[in-house]
Specification:
The chain is of the alpha/beta class. It has one domain: TIM Barrel. It is 44% helix and 13% strand. The protein contains 14 helices and eleven strands. The protein has a nine-stranded parallel sheet with strand order 9-8-7-6-5-4-3-11-10. A two-stranded antiparallel sheet has the order 1-2. Strand 1 and strand 2 form a beta hairpin.
């Protein structure tokens, strides 16, 4: 009996530790929550209930200002077994040179990070960690931005908190010298990278909206290719989108669109995903996850090569602007107008990747 218990104990230990290191946690499945939604207890309760039912385990929550209700509802999230990642916008709409190089400005934004850690954030996610799209392109821009990242990294690392950064989808392929994002340069200063690989934001959007799997998969594998497809120096948790703001689609098309993106993330062997909806409309995501069960998406040639049908009727091509990342309503900051230009810069690169 003793020998049997010993063997069982060793087997359990082997499941928990490999070469003295903890086995990786379950893959991240998260959604973005703006502060307006967090403050709305009824809406938050609904999102918590639905998320738990489909295996979502992480909420990325905006913090723009401290309120009395913030701590109470963050506690509700955590008490329901969900991870709280705090999203902090560093340079709204991208920084100007005097902001990027200002220690006083960094300290001001760090106060939000400090507050988030006090609320119990398990990780800090920095968005808009970049120059304005109006900045003159230069390799120096990424070096400047790295200094800002290092500042935040040293601060949160001292508290034992991992640091995430959001990057443009184009940076999955190569450096963006205008906004100053270079993932190879940033690699030693971050714990998690979150490329925003929304098919709706790649040019031409008609093509990439119709090919969500290919667009997301090529973006993530190209990012890994920047490190010679070896072990990544950070975790990879991309942002995908709950809807395509260029079109009004049926529920079934939205379901297919979402599942194709998730399948691409899984096939690229990322560490998880976050789903973006600026107004936090996630019913289509919940329905999509229910349709496949809580397990991994079943591989199928049909789904891999699925090209979501895009109708060119008047109704289907009407933009749904409040589902674009550039909305600010409800505390949600996003891409902004520069997305059209940045997506064009990577269009040829992505087209070349798709031909390989």
């Amino acid at each position: 009996m003793f020998r049997k218990l010993t063997v069982m104990a060793l087997m359990t230990a082997g499941m928990l530790f490999v070469s003295g290191q903890s086995v990786a946690q379950p893959k991240i499945k998260g959604i973005y929550i703006n502060q307006g939604t967090l403050e709305n207890s009824k809406q938050l309760d609904y999102l918590i209930e639905q998320s738990k039912a489909v295996g979502i385990n992480t909420f990325v929550v905006d913090l723009e200002k401290a309120t009395k209700n913030y701590q109470k509802n963050i506690d509700k999230i955590k008490n329901n077994g969900l991870r709280y990642v705090a999203r902090i916008v560093v340079f709204p709409d991208g920084g100007k040179a005097n902001q990027i190089k200002s220690n006083d400005y960094w300290e001001k934004r760090y106060k939000l990070v400090e507050a988030a850690m006090g609320y119990g954030a398990e990780e800090i996610q920095l968005d808009y960690i970049r120059y304005s799209s109006k900045q003159t392109p230069s390799p120096q821009n990424a070096k400047d931005v790295k200094q800002v990242i290092k500042f935040f990294k040293e601060k949160v690392a001292a508290k034992g908190i991992p640091l995430q950064i959001d990057i443009f989808g184009e940076v999955s392929f190569k450096e963006s010298p205008r906004i100053g994002q270079n993932i190879q340069l940033f690699a030693d200063t971050i714990d998690v990278v979150c490329p925003m690989v929304y098919p709706s934001h790649y040019h031409p959007y008609q093509k990439h909206s119709a090919e969500p799997y290919e667009t997301v998969y090529k973006s993530l594998t190209s990012l890994k290719g920047q490190f010679n497809n070896e072990k990544m120096p950070f975790k990879l948790n991309p942002y995908i989108e709950a809807s395509n703001y260029h079109y009004k689609w049926s529920a079934s098309k939205k379901t297919s669109y979402i599942l194709s993106q998730i399948k691409a993330v899984e096939d690229a062997n990322a560490d998880g995903w976050f789903v973006w909806s600026p107004q936090n409309y996630y019913d289509n995501l919940f329905n999509a996850l229910k349709s496949r069960g809580n397990g991994k998406t079943v591989a199928s040639d049909t789904q891999k090569s699925d090209k979501t049908e895009i109708s060119e009727s008047k109704d289907s091509t009407k933009p749904v602007q409040n589902e674009s990342r550039n909305t600010r309503k409800g505390y949600g900051y996003g891409y902004g107008k520069q997305v059209r230009n940045s997506s064009k810069r990577v269009a040829k690169t992505l087209a070349s990747a798709n031909n390989n």
